[in-house]
Amino acid sequence: MKPGSRALGVAESFPGAARAPTDDVDDAHFSTDPSPESVLCGAVVRADRVVDGLAFETCTVGGDDATDAIASLYASLGREDVRYLLVSGIAPAWFNLVDVERLAADLDRPVVSVSFEESEGLEPALAEQFSGAALDRRLATYRAAPPRRPLDVNGETVFVRAAGCDDDEAARVVRGFTPTGGRPEPIRVARMAARAARRFAGD
């Protein structure tokens, strides 16, 4: 990965009472009284760890607008030099599922979802929390997602879904943007910034 290669990392933050016991959920939580919106941050980071831009959006907690919110966040930056989109999980904001295949097609960029915990999948949790059309929509998006594959990064295991590129390229991207530890730098920066923005807003 060339030092000047840029990726947009996307992560989110919203307050909640307890960690959701599922995969593909980064800073998402169950809560009996959740905030109506989750803060999304997009961080443009070069492979040499230089932060090169930030943008913010919101999506609805428990809604179905995360994919559109991420696309809007990308568009707001106006950065044609961003080569890859790295998304933290696929279920931000309490199962507001991200359609990574649609994002890759709409943005004309490879999209790589990275999660950090082993799991048997989201379907049992979705069936527990939703029903009817709301469940059907989420199951359709989840089942259409690319397969989740383990990847060793600096001696740690992360779990990767890739759209718009093959698994080998996705592995190179994740490793190339992860100089230390197991969390890609664009996602790490985006997560910190999302948390700071939410706290600044007083949530």
From TrEMBL:
Q: Which residues form a coiled coil?
A: none
Q: Name one Pfam family in it.
A: Endo_dU
Q: Which InterPro entries match?
A: Endo_dU
HAMAP family per UniProt: UPF0215
Q: Which PANTHER family match?
A: UPF0215 PROTEIN MJ1150
Q: Which family does it belong to?
A: Belongs to the UPF0215 family.
Descriptive protein name? UPF0215 protein C457_02421
Species name = Haloferax prahovense (strain DSM 18310 / JCM 13924 / TL6)
